[in-house]
Amino acid sequence: MIPGPFIYHRPASLAEALTVLSTHGDEARPLAGGHSLIPMMKLRMASPEHLIDLGGIKDLRGICETAGDIVIGATTTQAELIKSDLLAAKLPIIRETAQQIADPQIRAKGTLGGNVANGDPGNDMPAVMQALGAQYVLQGSGGKRSVPARDFYQGSYFTALQQDEILVAVQIPAPPAGHGYAYEKLKRKIGDYATAATAVILTVSGGKVSSASIALTNVAPTPLFAAEAAKLIIGTACDAATLQRAAEAAKAIADPATDGRGTAEYRREMAGVMTARALAKAFARAKTGA
Ligand SMILES: Cc1cc2nc3c(=O)[nH]c(=O)nc-3n(C[C@H](O)[C@H](O)[C@H](O)COP(=O)(O)OP(=O)(O)OC[C@H]3O[C@@H](n4cnc5c(N)ncnc54)[C@H](O)[C@@H]3O)c2cc1C
Q1: DSSP-derived secondary structure letter, 258
Q2: What is the pLDDT of residues 106-121, one digit of tens each?
Q3: pLDDT digits over 64-100, tens only?
Q4: Is the pTM of this model over 0.70?
Q5: Judgement on whether residues 120 and 20 belong to the same structural domain of the protein
Q6: Are 269 and 191 in the same domain?
Q7: Which of 42, 64, 147, 272 has the most CB atoms in a 10 Å sphere around its CB?
Q8: Are 93 and 193 in a shared domain?
């Protein structure tokens, strides 16, 4: 349980961090809250020779609104997401999800950037970011680019992040006021990763769903954007038969492994149950537009 030796860097600027990263190549890794990386180093599943602590870079932290988008700095902690009045008003699904991550000690240090950049299919925020249509803003030696959360995840711990890049922010288009939302997570106990979980964002007009997006956590090697399930509920009032059809569509794309949280069959079934519950809750919360 003791990590291998490493050199610790604490740059004060993003430019400095990028220089250290490009100088040391594969041997360097950014360090944010450390609540995924340090356990992996202790288990010798990761042995970076250079750790680049992003905690000293002030520009990477904070939450603001610009031109209809909410921009969250990569090193903003999960605890700060929960405390943010702006997020509570504009993106309440983020607070609802952050409250279901781990425990208060981990949320005090764990960051949004680390949660989404890690590529762990058990992490809760990636599916939420897919449901919200978020963009990940990445900065590397060659400049800045944005990658949609829906295109970022390539496999378990494999993402579109290049070795010389740092995730600097997550940019989220604010859904309309009165939208419905829910993050339903089945877990064995407080502090556990999801057995299965579903994020839903929808809008309702004239008593019927007018737009919807759905994404699933921890039922495949990557988060899953459930486009077919979302299509099925458009134009409906989320009646029981429609919820069942959407649940079946979510189950059809799920590909969970058997693990300590249950068999593959059970976890696929729970992906459907979480989807139906999240849809029903989001619909009940939405304010009906004209
Ligand atoms: C007991 C326990 C239970 C947990 N339960 C849950 C849970 O239920 N749900 C959940 O979602 N998470 C859970 N976590 C994980 C926790 O949320 C982590 O904090 C989070 O996954 C990683 O964030 P971090 O800031 O700690 O990142 P770190 O551990 O510092 O980094 C994780 C990875 O991301 C990379 N990285 C970090 N920041 C950046 C960046 N800005 N740019 C590029 N790469 C970056 C690092 O190089 C590393 O590879 C749990 C952790 C523990 C220890």
Answers
A1: P
A2: 999 999 999 999 999 9
A3: 999 989 999 999 999 999 999 999 999 999 999 999 9
A4: yes
A5: no
A6: yes
A7: 272
A8: no
